[in-house]
Each structure stands twice: as C-alpha cells, then as structure tokens.
Amino acid sequence: MAKAKKITNEELAAVQGAVNSINNLYMSVGRTIVELIKTSGGIDDLDAALKSHQKDLEDKYGSITINLQTGEYEEAVEEAEEVAE
Q1: For the packed helices 42-61 and 9-40, what is the interaxial angle rounded to 10 degrees?
Q2: Paired residues of 74 in beta bridges
Q3: Among 8, 27, 35, 66, which is disulfide-ready with 73 (CB 3.0 to 4.6 Å)?
Q4: What local confidence, expressed as pLDDT, does residue 32 receive?
C-alpha cells in the first residue's frame, strides 16, 4: 500500500480554520433566523401544528413512537413504577 501523503500542519490549520469559520457563520445565521421566527410568532404556529398532528395520531393509534423516515410505528412502552415496600 502506498504511503499517504500529507499537507503541512500550517496548511491543514489554515484549511481547518476556514472550514470552522464557515460552519460558525452557518450556525450564527441559523440562530438569527430562528430568533426572527420566534419573535414573529411563526414558531408558535409550527409547534401548534405539530401538537395537533400528534394528538390526531394518538387519538387514532394510541400512544406510539413513529420512525419519521419510514412511517413505521411501535406502541410506546410505559415503564411500570416500582412499588416500594
């Protein structure tokens, strides 16, 4: 197997720094957008819609856990409380 080639530590640090700066910018922009949505009441509308869907599903299927990728679900298992004697 051929030996892996490496860039210099300085070059690696520069690339890592640039990637980290971009990722930090994405996170900052995302936080700003979420805050704007919260202040406009938009997030409340989304939360209300989600809770409505959850209630409809619970009314139809009972307490379940849904796999959001496949739509498959399992009955939610509630842990029994132990009774101290």
Answers
A1: 80
A2: 65
A3: 66
A4: 93
Residue pLDDT, tens place only, 61-73: 999 999 999 999 9
pTM, full prediction: 0.47
55 and 68 co-located in one domain:
yes
Are residues 72 and 58 both part of a single domain?
Answer: yes
Contact (CB, 8 A) for 82 and 71 = no
Say how far apart CA 10 and CA 22 lie, in whole Å: 19
Using 50 as the pLDDT threshold, list the residues of the chain that sit under it.
none
Long-range contacts of 32-38 (CB under 8 A, 24+ apart): none
Residue 47: C-alpha distances to residues 8, 52, 54, 66 (Å): 49, 9, 10, 17
Which residues have CB under 8 Å from 21's CB, separation 6+?
Answer: none
Structure tokens at 62: 């009972």
Q: What is the pLDDT of residue 81?
A: 58
